[in-house]
Amino acid sequence: MTIRIGNGYDVHAFCPGDHLFLCGVKLPFSQGLLGHSDADVGMHALTDALYGALALGDIGTHFPPSDPQWRGVASDIFLRHAGASVTEMGFKISNIDVTLICEAPKIALHQLTMRTRLAQILILGVDQVSVKATTSEGLGFTGRKEGIAAQASALLVAL
Ligand code: MG
Predict the structure, then answer these.
(1) 3-state secondary structure of 25
(2) Distance 89 CA to ligand 1 centre (A)
(3) Which residues make Cβ contacts (< 8 Å) with residue 34, sequence separation at least 6?
(4) Nearest 5°: CA angle at 89, between 84 and 150?
(5) What's the 42 CA to ligand 1 centre distance in angstroms?
(6) Is-contact 34 16, C-beta < 8 A?
(7) Ligand 1 centre distance from Cα of residue 11 (Å)
(8) 35 CA to middle of ligand 1, Å?
(9) What is the pTM of this model?
(10) Which of 79, 84, 99, 137 is deepest in the core (most CB within 10 A)?
(11) C-alpha of residue 150 to centroid of ligand 1, in Å
């Protein structure tokens, strides 16, 4: 098999706070995101896309939320593990694409920083990493500003 594709999806709810983490970038914001780790919803979706492409389960398989050692950790631990698994299984990442779904914070100003951060963690070129954002036009839980959702795709090619 020479190519494999994976997708990931995640949601985290807003909670009281003054910053949040999205795709490895700390953003000042009027709320935080609730989660066992740093609740980086974009990085979690991307990590699951890589695990999915390898048919290796999901973040919860490798880092059980019931395990206290993962409480409050930076999510790049998860992404680095998924990236290492790609190499171990004889593949490399062709490209990745993340979509953040929220009314706020506004992502546009931070897109390049996020792409650069993800590329650094996965040892990729920035041109292999896409981070996009959309609102849901006021509809649903993201539209009501209750939280942030993220989707990600990853394409792997055999080494
Ligand atoms: Mg998550």
Answers:
(1) strand
(2) 24
(3) 12, 13, 14, 15, 147
(4) 55
(5) 8
(6) no
(7) 6
(8) 7
(9) 0.97
(10) 79
(11) 9
Ligand 1 center to 63 CA (angstroms): 11
Residue corresponding to tokens 């009281």: 16
Cα(34) to centroid(ligand 1), Å: 9
**Distance of CA 154 from the midpoint of ligand 1 (Å):** 17
pLDDT tens per residue across all 159 residues of the chain: 799 999 999 999 999 999 999 999 999 999 999 998 999 999 999 999 999 999 999 999 999 988 888 888 899 999 999 999 999 999 999 999 999 999 999 999 999 999 999 999 999 999 999 999 999 999 999 999 999 999 999 999 999
